[in-house]
Amino acid sequence: MYRTTNSSYGSGVVTRNKEQMSQKTQDVDPMRIGIENIGNTCYINSMLQCLFNTPAISTAMKQYKDNKNSTELFKQFYKIWFSIQAGIEPEHNDIIQFKKLMNQHREFDNFNQQDCIEFFHVFLDIVNTGFLTQPFFGQLTYQINCQNCNNSSKQTEQFINLSIYIEQACRLSQLLSDYFKPEQLNSQEKCKKCQKTSPLIRKTNLSAPPMVLVIQLKRYDSRQTRSNNAIEIEQSLILKGFCDQSPLYKLYAVINHQGYSIYSGHYTCLIKAATCWYYFNDQRVSEYSNKVVDDELQKSQNSYVLFYQRQ
């Protein structure tokens, strides 16, 4: 079992006010405008398209007013978004400037192919803008039980995406159920109550489901061996059994990856529109029927990052 959260975003209780909890964001009808690839930047382009078409972010961007406290990276992000909203392909120099600002983080100070989910984490960390990060925040609660005396303790951890290894061909809902199964920890620590070393069982609960659930399907192991197992991607998910609220989520974006390793190959994305899907391949944008995408998602071998909007 492999769990991933981003500890740099802190830990503790995720809180939302009543207005946030009841907020119904409008679905986004994507603009058919691509983004230039300036040299192995398809991982950036695909993630930006998904962020631009995240309903909560799109709504907030339309209401945004220039703020002197905004980071330079966010201002450049806004420029690219604004061009696309105006139906204009972003300027070459704006894309170059965005990449230069990302170069401040040494991991991206090159034109090598990168992992789009790592870009997602670093970008949100650098821009440090609430309405960009808040939709993705969720909280996991870990309950650890001593098998000798049944003493239990709880810990909480925030996350902005779930990362799940693919070990076999199955449905996405099965992968999620397996991810949240109780697991035995290989710990030599003594129980604080009975002072004995005994097996510890950890149960994980999704205690604060995010507005946008981002799921990374990890197809590569530590040796960069790729799993080509086909996954059935359900477009509607009800989170039962590991989340008390049993929320409903609907798929609105998919990042696909093809290649021999996560740091090579090519990234593209699919964005759901009102009556079809748009396929973004850097500057090239194509329209796909719902039937074509439905069939593709039934046995998906290239899906890498999934975006679900809470209903």
What does the model show?
By secondary structure, the protein is of the alpha+beta class. The chain has one domain: Cysteine proteinases (Cathepsin B, Chain A). It is 27% helix and 27% strand. The protein contains nine helices and 14 strands. Strands 3, 7, 9, 10, 11, 12, 13 and 14 form an eight-stranded mixed β-sheet that branches. The chain has a four-stranded antiparallel β-sheet with strand order 2-1-6-5, with no helix packed on it. The protein has a two-stranded parallel sheet with strand order 4-8. A hairpin with a 2-residue loop joins strand 12 and strand 13. The longest helix is centred in the N-terminal third of the chain and has 14 residues. The chain is globular, with a radius of gyration of 20 Å. The two termini are 28 Å apart.
Can you summarize this structure?
This protein has 311 residues and is an alpha+beta fold. The protein has one domain (26-310): Cysteine proteinases (Cathepsin B, Chain A, Alpha-Beta Complex), CATH 3.90.70. Helices cover 27% and strands 27% of the residues.
